Amino acid sequence: MAQIVRLTTKPQRSGQEEAAQAAEQLSLLSEELLKHLPGEARIAISRATHALQKAARPDTTEGLWPGGFTMLSRMQTAAIWDGIRELSSDDRPNQVRHAFDLVLLNLRQDTGEVLLTRDQLAERIGCAPKNVSTIMGTLEKMGVIRRERRRIEGVQGRGMAVYFINPHVAWNGSLDVRKAQAAETRPPMQLELLQGGAS
Asked: Can you give the residue ranges of the HTH crp-type domain (predicted)?
């Protein structure tokens, strides 16, 4: 039986190689250097790296799955949906669910970082930026995401909030990296409760 093969032209191969080289160069930026960059610049570098990685491997991301894909744990995701439905109306369950969906659709490959700023989340959820912290805080309490602070040079305060998905819930990228991250991360609270664990 004949096998269907996706043809790749010489210019396409050349473009993929250039994208791979550019992604590799960006990955060489040291964490020490990145710490001194403005938060928006770090997010821009993350997005550029992710886009270049996809361009370098179109058959595994954009080619076969337009827009890329995210791997989900069905059990954890269902538990989170149930947990969100049980939230009181004061906790904005509809907006929390929308935020969770946006998180799943905007993950950086191999780190699980959410590639949306607070303002972008607010615009897509349809709420004020000040409410994003509360909404994401609810997901954080549930164990769905974790939050880090990145200092912005020249700006006072704790720094910009950056979110990461719990690797027990979803992942975009290498399974080996996901396993390593999951080994250091607890499952979401709702899943532990379903399994009879303590909260």
From this structure: 104-153
Which tens digits make up the pLDDT trace of 135-191? Answer: 999 999 999 999 988 777 776 777 788 899 999 998 877 777 788 888 888 888 644
Classify domain 72-182 at the CATH class level.
Answer: mainly alpha
Of 169, 50, 43, nearest to 109 by C-alpha is: 50
CB contact set of 54 (below 8 Å; sequence gap of 6+): 61, 62, 68, 109
- At a CB cut-off of 8 Å and minimum separation 6, what does 161 contact? 118, 133, 136, 147, 148, 149
- Segment 186-189 long-range contacts (CB within 8 Å, at least 24 positions apart): 186/143, 187/76, 187/143, 188/76, 188/79, 188/80, 188/83, 188/142, 188/143, 188/144, 189/83, 189/141, 189/142, 189/143
* Residue bearing tokens 């769905």: 144
Task: Give pLDDT tens digits for 10-46.
Answer: 677 777 788 878 877 877 777 778 778 877 777 778 7
The token pair at 164 is 């990461």
Domain spans of the chain, in order of start: 12-54, 72-182
